[in-house]
Design a protein that fits this description.
This protein has 26 helices and 26 strands. The protein has 766 residues and is of the alpha/beta class. It has four domains: 154 residues, Lambda Exonuclease, Chain A (Alpha-Beta Complex), CATH 3.90.320.10; 237 residues, P-loop containing nucleotide triphosphate hydrolases (Rossmann fold, 3-Layer(aba) Sandwich), CATH 3.40.50.300; 122 residues; 199 residues, Rossmann fold (3-Layer(aba) Sandwich). Strands 10-9-11-8-12-17-7-18 form an eight-stranded parallel beta sheet, with helices on both faces. Helix 23 links the parallel strand 21 and strand 22. The radius of gyration is 30 Å and the shape is globular. The termini are far apart.
């Protein structure tokens, strides 16, 4: 086995010591770093050598890199590091790492030039003051050799373990067996398509109804494909916690405790943090103190454990006295399967995507409930600046920032005065505003460098928001809108919000898909496929699969009420007929039902009337901003043998990811087409979608709306034994262009609801 590694990566792994220190210290940009290196080199003598390539071997490991600078006259090797602010504020663990790098370079140079000793220097160059701070030491070649070999031994020991793990993992996955005697109906069809995509390096968009075991049906073939395709990592990406739990449950069924497969659940920092009241550095948080000193032991313990869900990672971290979240980040480098949120691969600064590029991994993606990626992708590549918050922040800002913030304020006020309507789209963000924001970001960067402690949270928030805004402005194009919204504030004053609003995430998500070996996106609602191909940036040759449903039309009675409108103008007239319909169905077959509405206001109107006219029917209701306990309490009302109606908002937390099989849920009422509100923002999106794809209304309103309807309806039938009823309450469900977007296994019965009686009259299909 031969190994190769760069000097920096070697030291990053073997030589980190001391505290975890995440105090905000602005770093030079890449351009500033390049310019700083050039400035230092230009100050040296004519014989000075820069970017000097060196390499050396120890046992089976080859270590290589480029020395920043070497002065042969003085036998001086220099490692150049650019920085901002006081050099004393460079964290100690960073300095130790810099010295480790220069020592490794020192031995490689001594070996190449047959030197018996060498002067080493770390040169810190301040990109603002242009001042150099030099720390210099003399080392013998023998001492440098010993240091080099120590780092190599540490790495080789680890690399041999990793190589053995990889061989054992691939051998185990080659013989991996499906955990059940047979596949469910449609599950084999899905699994075969996923395997072919992974084998051939293609992309798959798979629509598969609930009940076939989508999670297991995608994970099993993906794992089976890993050895043959020499795949390094599998990322299972989900929008919500229930999706992660389903993935972990499926992986538990696929493996036994002896299977050499490392599975990591990577969760958000706020969910993993043990001390949310403390800052992430050793002077504040005990789990940051000495983090890198204890990390190797914790890492080894974790990877021996192999099953690394959130609880397991926490227990290992606490046992070793380190932060669970940053241990989990480290374990992302070494785990075979990572289960996490979309943003860890698709966001601008996504950890998993960055690791993929740096390590040149061959990765496969499984994107769960992929219909959610459209809106999540839009939010990842959008940015807002709020004027009211900005003005409040500016009043309390440090004196030396008043000038640059005042310039932003003047340009912003001018835009605000010129806009007389509540909402307006502009061709692009004004250059003068962007220039002012750029200067403000630069000035705040310098301020935070000089004074990293004691800054107001609002200043940091504006700084980060403004940086994102400027970054997205640089890539602005037809995929986004620049809009300004005016809102009324206190005392008759109005404020505005500036927004770079992404409406087409494809240009950002597409390259992420291309950098994966293959990707499978799956959901019960991926129809029509061209909508998702267009918005997510998937290649046109992506295979689109509509998996055969295991359910029959006899299991779900789908009844569309064709003579009742739930449009906003007709809602008052719809209240009594909807209540009579709910009461009639409940009277004919008592049990648990869900009733979905387009808004809390509409929900409350129907609920109030139902409670008044039919007080004998038990009801419970989704409220705004329910916490986890309240959500669980809502779902616990759906018990076997229970009776009542749960009222919920379509597209909310109970509209998908809820599993209520059997008698826990026997029917649903959907009193809306799910269309987004017609407002200036959505109308601008409609126009942009029309310009890009020619189907502005469908892309903005119809497709997203019906996706929510089908997701909500999917709560009723969860297994092949379930039976239930679904009422689609709106006259537009009778239209052919709407019904063709509903699941193919549904047989929709059109009904006319007499507005004064509770008798339902079947109507011929149109």
């Amino acid at each position: 086995m031969s190994l190769r590694i760069a000097v920096r990566e070697l030291c990053e792994f073997t030589a980190k010591e001391g505290d975890l220190d995440l105090r905000f210290t602005p770093s030079p940009t890449a351009q500033e770093g390049i310019a700083g290196h050039a400035t230092v080199v230009a100050r040296r003598g004519p014989d000075y050598m820069s970017e000097l390539a060196v390499s050396g071997e120890f046992e089976e490991l080859t270590v290589s890199g480029r020395i920043d600078g070497f002065d042969p006259e003085f036998r001086l090797l220099e490692e150049i590091k650019t920085h901002r602010g006081d050099v004393a504020r460079i964290p100690a663990n960073h300095r130790l790492l810099h010295w480790a790098q220069v020592k490794v370079y020192g031995w490689l140079l001594c070996q190449a030039l047959e030197l018996d000793e060498l002067d080493l220097a770390v040169v810190y160059f301040n990109v603002i003051s242009q001042k150099e701070t030099v720390f210099r030491e003399r080392h013998s070649a023998e001492a440098l050799r010993q240091f080099f070999e120590l780092q190599c031994r540490r790495y080789i020991h680890w690399a041999r373990q990793e190589q053995a793990h990889r061989l054992a993992r691939d051998a185990a996955l080659t013989t991996l067996r499906f955990p059940y005697a047979e596949f469910r109906h449609g599950q084999r069809q899905l699994a075969e398509a996923v395997y072919r995509a992974a084998r051939d390096g293609h992309y798959l968009l798979a629509q598969a109804t609930t009940g076939i075991g989508k999670t297991l049906g995608t994970l099993f073939p993906q794992l089976k494909a890993m050895p043959g395709q020499q795949l390094d990592r599998l990322f299972f990406l989900s929008a919500k916690t229930p999706g992660r739990r389903l993935a972990l449950d499926a992986l538990q069924r696929l493996r036994d405790p002896e299977t050499p497969l490392r599975v990591l659940e990577h969760v958000a920092r706020d969910k993993a943090c043990e001390h949310p009241d403390k800052a992430c550095h050793g002077e504040s948080c005990p789990l940051a103190r000495g983090f890198y000193d204890r990390l190797p032991a914790a890492r080894s313990a974790a990877l021996k454990e192999r099953w690394l869900d959130q609880q397991a990672v926490r227990e290992i971290a606490i046992a070793h006295g380190i932060c669970p979240y940053y241990l989990s980040q480290e374990l992302c480098r070494w785990s075979d399967v990572v289960v996490g949120d979309y943003n860890y691969y698709f966001d601008l600064g996504a950890l998993l995507h960055s690791l993929t590029l740096v390590n040149q991994w061959r990765v496969c993606l499984l994107v769960d409930e992929a219909h959610n990626l459209v809106e999540r992708g839009r939010s990842m590549y959008s940015a807002e600046l709020d004027q009211a918050r900005f003005k409040a922040m500016r009043r309390d800002a440090p004196a030396k920032l008043k000038g640059v913030l005042g310039r932003v304020d003047r340009h912003w006020n001018q835009l605000h005065r010129e806009q007389q309507v509540p909402y307006q789209v502009h061709p692009l963000a004004p250059d003068l505003l962007l220039a002012a924001l750029g200067k403000a970001v630069s000035a705040i960067t310098d301020h935070l460098t000089d004074q990293p402690e004691g800054n107001a949270g609002e200043l940091l928030r504006f700084y980060l928001d403004a940086m994102l805004f400027c970054r997205l402005a640089e890539s602005f194009g037809p995929h986004s809108l620049f809009d300004i919204s005016r809102v009324e504030g206190d005392k008759g004053r109005s404020y505005s919000t500036l927004c770079i609003r992404n409406v087409l995430p494809a240009p950002f998500l597409g390259p992420r898909f291309e950098q994966a070996h293959s990707a499978t996106l799956f959901s019960a609602t991926l129809s029509p496929s061209h909508y998702y191909l267009d918005l997510l940036g998937l290649p046109q040759e992506t295979q689109c699969l509509d998996v055969d449903s295991p359910f029959s039309a006899e299991q779900l009675q789908v009844r569309a009420v064709r003579n009742l409108s739930t449009r906003y103008r007709d809602r008052d007239a719809s209240l009594a007929p909807i209540c009579r319909l709910i009461a009639r169905q409940y009277g004919e077959r008592p049990g648990n039902y869900l009733a979905f509405f387009s808004s809390y206001q509409y929900l409350q109107q129907v609920l109030d009337l139902l409670a008044r006219e039919y007080p004998e029917i038990p009801v419970w209701v989704q409220s705004r901003q329910m916490d986890e306990a309240a959500r669980q309490g809502f779902l616990e009302r759906f018990q076997v043998g229970g009776r009542g109606i749960g009222f919920a908002v379509l597209g909310g937390v109970f509209g998908e990811g809820v599993d209520l099989p059997g008698e826990r849920l026997i029917g649903a009422f959907v009193a809306t087409l799910g269309l987004a509100q017609v407002n200036p923002i959505n109308e601008e999106i409609r126009q942009r979608m029309h310009a890009l794809f020619g189907d502005g209304y469908d892309y903005t309103y119809l497709y997203p709306g019906l996706q929510k309807v089908v997701q909500a309806a999917g709560r009723v039938i969860r297994t092949t034994e379930d039976e239930g009823v679904l009422y689609l309450i709106d006259d537009r469900f009778a239209r052919q262009e709407v019904r063709r977007l509903l699941p193919s296994w549904w047989q929709v019965e059109l009904l006319r609801l007499p507005l004064q009686t509770a008798v339902l009259e079947p109507q011929p299909d149109l």
